[in-house]
Amino acid sequence: MTIELAPSILSANFARLAEDAKAALEGGGSVLHLDVMDGHFVPNITIGPPVVASLRKALPDTVFDCHLMIENPDSYIPAFADAGANWISVHQEACVHLHRTLQLIESLGCEPAVVINPATPVHTLDEVLDTVHHVLVMSVNPGFGAQTFIHGSLNKIKTLAEVRESLGLSFRIEVDGGVALDTVSDVVHAGAELLVAGNAVFGHGNIRENAKKLLGAARAAMLTRA
Ligand code: DX5
Ligand code: ZN
């Protein structure tokens, strides 16, 4: 599995989103993580389809990873697909008919993925692991950037990696929240390959250099992964 950095624009300057995103991609980010919040499923509001569509015009070839932290995702998934999303992830906790929602995403030509909050056990995903492109393990409670990494999420990443191995499946494992220079080797050693990072990339200093350093640390950790 290849390690990839997915810069999260949540911590970027929203008045210059495309420029900040480009800097993070130049630093080695290969997937752009777009956090969609509705003020209901999580206590914050961020972006909707028009912003995704504008970014798509500015970045025609970048993989867009749309993380939907919203209620009733089925009502909005087609608009995000139209806007240019490549991967669309929905929260297990927000989907009554999770399998149907994942099928909807796939039917629109996007890669379907599922997310679990820190309090949600991995086994709640048992019946969909063979249909998802990736599983996103939240390592903070969703809603805000720059929160403290929750260490209990490492065991969930390990469990997922073990289940994937034992079942011979190929979904990828993504982690989101508090990923920074001091936590990145732990998440890589636990088994994550898609690393979302907001504050560590956009929060301070030089965006390009921050991305480069974080990806470098992740790759170094990969060399010592069991
Ligand atoms: C939080 C979002 C994250 C957020 C992570 O609800 O899903 O993608 O940007 O931010 P950091 O990396 O700052 O913890
Ligand atoms: Zn996210």
Q: How would you sum up this structure in a few lines?
A:
This protein has helices at residues 17-26, 49-58, 77-83, 98-107, 153-167, 184-190, 199-202, 207-223; strands spanning 4-7, 31-37, 63-69, 87-91, 111-116, 134-138, 172-176, 194-197. With 226 residues, the protein is α/β, with parallel strands linked by helices. An eight-stranded parallel sheet has the order 1-8-7-6-5-4-3-2.
Layout of helices and strands:
Elements: E1 4-7, H1 17-26, E2 31-37, H2 49-58, E3 63-69, H3 77-83, E4 87-91, H4 98-107, E5 111-116, E6 134-138, H5 153-167, E7 172-176, H6 184-190, E8 194-197, H7 199-202, H8 207-223
Parallel strand pairs: 1-8, 2-3, 3-4, 4-5, 5-6, 6-7, 7-8
Helix pairs in contact: 1-8, 2-3, 6-8
D-xylitol-5-phosphate binds at residues 8, 10-11, 33, 35, 67, 140, 142-143, 145-147, 176-179, 196-200.
